[in-house]
Amino acid sequence: MADHEAGLPPKSRRAPEEGDPGLGVCGWILVITSLVFTVLTFPISIWMCIKIIKEYERAIIFRLGRILKGGAKGPGLFFVLPCTDSFIKVDMRTISFDIPPQEILTKDSVTVNVDGVVYYRVQNATLAVANITNADSATRLLAQTTLRNVLGTKNLSEILSDREEIAHSMQATLDEATDDWGIKVERVEIKDVKLPVQLQRAMAAEAEAAREARAKVIAAEGEMNASRALKEASMVITESPAALQLRYLQTLTTIAAEKNSTIVFPLPINILQGLLRMKE
User: Fold this and answer.
1) Residues with Cβ < 8 Å from 236, sequence gap 6 or more?
2) What CA–CA distances, in Å, run from 108 to 31, 131, 146, 157, 280?
3) Which residue has the higher pLDDT, 24 or 211?
4) Contact 129, 116 (CB under 8 A)
């Protein structure tokens, strides 16, 4: 029988049996009577006295309504007295539950529906039994309240972008609040943030307008770079008159490669000027 980690309440917390005056004279008389009855009816009574709990469970034993010193028992075999002792089993495994969707008004007056998931486990079985009626139900209700309180102080943009920070904040708040219940909150995650349909359309329109604005800026920058390149090319061509003729020939080569039936040949202006002078 192992009486270890889950059994002994930390010194920083108030143990349920602290200041316990004991069973009293009547209590000890009942305990001794139960023990004598167990001995007299042995071995039949042994089946009522020996209990078994699994590896992931702990047992809190009450003797005449008081928790036995030494904390939780288990895993394995442990001994109880008939008539005077009773016990409660506590599951020490990690438990997960979904936080129902909560309708939350953010700091910038936007209504959103947010849900999440919480992972917790019982760290101290004695406190989980003695300090609260139903630790699981209390943790679920506290998670819902904490989710609304934390997200109510955030803007919509912060909720959408800082989920990890919000989850850590919720975990710290829940862990501190459930410490006296013997509960350890291991992880909190934000599952989904649902926005109103009208707000989704407005955000989509805003994003589309931003993309169009960036596209226009990029196109304008391309036009500006192209105009600079054309300016530099024109300066190079003006330095050599033969370069313009070479450009004509290159254009003809490009047109001929496309297998067109009609080719427009650019005639130099100086030839036209010479022909006009001859007519005069």
Assistant:
1) 243
2) 65, 39, 19, 9, 83
3) 211
4) no
Give the Cα separation of 256 and 250 in Å (integer): 10
Give 180's DSSP letter. Answer: G
CA-wise closest residue to 9 among 75, 86, 68, 64: 68
| 120: confidence class by pLDDT, cuts 50, 70, 90 | very high
Burial of 58 (0-12, 13-18, 19+ CB in 10 A): buried
Mean of pLDDT values over 83-95 = 86
Q: Tell me which of 183 and 273 has the higher pLDDT.
A: 183
Cα first-last separation, the chain: 127
d(CA 147, CA 171): 10
How many angstroms separate the CA atoms of 34 and 45, rounded?
A: 11
Pairing of strands 66-67, 57-63: antiparallel
Percent of the chain predicted with pLDDT > 70: 78
58 and 7 Cβ atoms separated by less than 8 Å: yes
Q: Are 79 and 49 in contact (CB under 8 A)?
A: yes
Task: Give tens-digit pLDDT for 209-263.
Answer: 888 888 888 888 888 888 888 788 777 777 776 676 677 677 767 766 666 556 6
Residue 258 half-sphere exposure toward CB, CA atoms < 13 A: 8
- d(CA 277, CA 165) in angstroms, rounded, equals 85
